[in-house]
Design goal:
Layout lengths: L2 H39 L7 H21 L4 H21 L8 H9 L6 H23 L12 H42 E2 L2 E2 L1 H5 L6 H47 L1
Antiparallel strand pairs: 1-2
Length: 260
């Protein structure tokens, strides 16, 4: 695969991921605001609303820094995934393990699909699994941490099983979707190769390197059209040449006729 093809394919994903970064940046702000509300509603000794807000902002900071310092790069996507995961863990902690806030796990895994990259999804799932198991065991030891309202390792394993199943389906889905975006980028490359200013130039599209099946079919069709146009031009040139020869023959014949 040529570097131009790779760059074109990447550009389709980069455009989507650029939009995804802004979308998830807004989502992280919503997560922070939700944490502040929970800190107010479930205020308890040792975790005031102010400290809850500060902790939420601190957990969101890696995702924000990734967006600012490494936009479009894998590092930024992984940092944002880690931040959103940590904020959901904070929601669970602030609500003292209310099961309703565990829905944030599945919401976050679904939101990460917008990156069209399986790696942030897998990272988030792994962090959720580590959080659930670790906090459940620390809760059982009386550390004041919460995963559920009461420690229940069996139920934690059930939650983990759901997370594993959803993550597996999401990975398959996002890999297929990313491939479709790359394929569409190749088709767009062919379309761009057709036009040079106000002219349509088939050679530009037929000489590009593509790999997607739909792009290959389109390129073959364009190649057939280009060959047909070449044949038409050659035929027209031959006809024009023959017409010229006939015209000159007629002129010669007329000249000889006049002389006689």
């Amino acid at each position: 695969m040529s570097s131009s093809t790779i760059n074109l394919q990447a550009s389709g994903l980069e455009a989507q991921r650029h939009n995804a970064e802004k979308f998830l940046l807004a989502a992280s702000v919503v997560y922070v605001l939700a944490a502040i509300v929970l800190a107010v509603v479930f205020e308890r000794p040792g975790l005031s609303p102010l400290s809850g807000a500060a902790l939420a902002a601190l957990l969101a900071l890696p995702g924000w820094l990734g967006w600012w310092l490494a936009p479009g790069r894998l590092l930024a996507r992984l940092l944002q995934a880690a931040s959103l995961t940590a904020l959901v863990a904070l929601h669970i902690q602030l609500s003292m393990g209310m099961r309703e806030f565990h829905f944030g796990v599945f919401v976050t895994l679904a939101l990460l699909l917008v990156y069209l990259d399986w790696r942030p999804v897998v990272l988030s799932a792994a962090l959720f699994a580590a959080h659930h198991v670790g906090f459940d065991r620390l809760q059982a030891m009386g550390w004041g941490l919460y995963c559920l309202s009461e420690p229940d390792f069996g139920l934690i394993l059930v939650h983990a099983a759901y997370v594993v199943v959803q993550t597996a389906f999401e990975v398959v889905f996002v890999v297929a979707l990313a491939r479709r975006v790359r394929d569409n980028a190749e088709v767009a490359m062919l379309a761009d190769g057709l036009q040079q200013g106000e002219r349509i130039v088939f050679d530009g599209a037929t000489q590009l390197k593509v790999n997607a099946p739909v792009a290959l079919r389109l390129q073959n069709a364009l190649g057939t059209i280009a060959q047909t146009l070449v044949s038409v031009r050659q035929t027209a040139a031959n006809v024009q040449l023959a017409s010229g020869e006939i015209a000159r023959g007629n002129q010669d014949l007329s000249a000889r006729t006049e002389q006689t």
